[in-house]
Amino acid sequence: MAGVNQVERDLIRMRQREGIELAKKEGKFKGRLKKYHKNHAGMNYAVKLYKEEDMTVNQICEITNVSRASLYRKLSERNS
């Protein structure tokens, strides 16, 4: 019984992979969208506050509802 289930599961994965490849070719499958895209108001405001150097990172994160890790990641991306 387990062998039949495994074969069925492999078939499902193969069909799923084919469907994803087809959707990518048509431009419909793009993966997960980023939470903080380049026009995200909260993140842009957080970066602006950080560059003004008037507040701590914790204060900025509380005001903008952006996580510390995300803020630091965005700052390192912009500096690279």
UniProtKB/TrEMBL annotation:
PROSITE patterns: RECOMBINASES_3. Residues 1-27 form the Resolvase/invertase-type recombinase catalytic domain. Pfam families: HTH_7. It comes from the Bacteria. Gene3D superfamilies: Homeodomain-like. One of its GO terms (molecular function) is DNA binding. This is Resolvase/invertase-type recombinase catalytic domain-containing protein. The lineage of its organism: Bacteria, Bacillati, Bacillota, Bacilli, Bacillales.
